[in-house]
């Protein structure tokens, strides 16, 4: 059971958006290199594990280790807040010690960066930047808890732009075009981030952690999240990223309902629908991804049921 504690300390459900955006970054780059029709949703007539597929799977594995390490570090420094909010029980309730968590963080981050450089040097460079962004987000020295904008910024850069570029540099050079085409994902990540801060509002207040809901209130936070999603759709259409545009359009009514009703439950649902819709479009591009998602979800459900007697993940209701 201890091994599974270590695995799920990396929070696989939160890594799914990183996988998804990296895959769609690779998709955008491949279209760019081939001059493919942007209306084409699929890449393969069937699943064939070619050299490119193995490279993509290796990149997803390294991204898993990098993101997992960042989530471990975040839990190390958020242990009191997590305990107060009654979530993320592994470190907060002593199932994994702080020493074990630090060892896992160093190990996963080191292996991820080395592995990324083995794929190509540009990916390695981006992984180093990602590790630094994650380090800045968690370390008290940088005082991001006291600056909601900085936390907001780091999430959008790390989970939006960098994740997209992880896939982009597999077939394209790191360039301004890749950064520009990541903008819809940056906005979408920002919208989702705002929603995820809402359930922890009371706990964050008690721990002195400043977030946008504390400064803006629930209504303005949900309105901002909705309009960021709208602008993300517009940018996606301008960039001919129709997979993203369709996925975001599917989730938009849920963001609108959350904004209209000022509902935390509906905001959580909007977040989950947006992640699910975008992930399904990524699976159309890269069919093995569907099996990866299903494995992650089923394994997580089994683990949390066996370890804590709770149902997680769920489509509706409060997040972990």
SSE topology:
Layout (H helix, E strand, L loop, with lengths): L1 H8 L2 H23 L16 H27 L1 H7 L3 H4 L5 H22 L1 H18 L9 H21 L7 H6 L1 H15 L3 H7 L4 H5 L1 H21 L3 H20 L2 H22 L2 H21 L12
Helix pairs in contact: 2-3, 2-8, 2-15, 3-6, 3-7, 4-11, 6-7, 7-8, 8-10, 10-13, 10-15, 13-14, 14-15, 15-16
Describe the structure.
It is globular, with a radius of gyration of 19 Å. Helix content is 77%, strand content 0%. Helix 2 packs antiparallel against helix 3 (51-77). It is mainly alpha-helical and 320 residues long. It has helices at 2-9, 12-34, 51-77, 79-85, 89-92, 98-119, 121-138, 148-168, 176-181, 183-197, 201-207, 212-216, 218-238, 242-261, 264-285, 288-308. It has one domain: Tetracycline Repressor, domain 2 (Orthogonal Bundle). 42% of the residues are buried.
Looking at this protein, list some descriptive labels.
320 residues, mainly alpha, Tetracycline Repressor, domain 2, 0% strand, globular
Give helix % range.
over 70%
What best-fitting shape do the alpha-carbon axes yield? globular
Q: What gyration radius follows from the Cα positions, in whole Å?
A: 19 Å
Largest sheet: none
Task: Give the domain tally.
Answer: 1
User: What's the name of the CATH homologous superfamily?
Assistant: UbiA prenyltransferase
What is the beta-strand fraction? under 5%
So what's the CATH class?
A: Mainly Alpha
User: If you consult CATH, what is the topology?
Assistant: Tetracycline Repressor, domain 2
Q: Could you tell me the mean pLDDT?
A: 86
Strand element count: 0
Low-confidence stretches: 41-51
Query: What sequence of helices (H) and strands (E) makes up the elements?
Result: HHHHHHHHHHHHHHHH
- What is the distance, rounded to the nearest whole angstrom, between the alpha carbons of the first and last residues? 20 Å
The helix/strand class is mainly alpha
Count of runs of 4 or more consecutive helical residues: 16
- Name given to the CATH architecture: Orthogonal Bundle
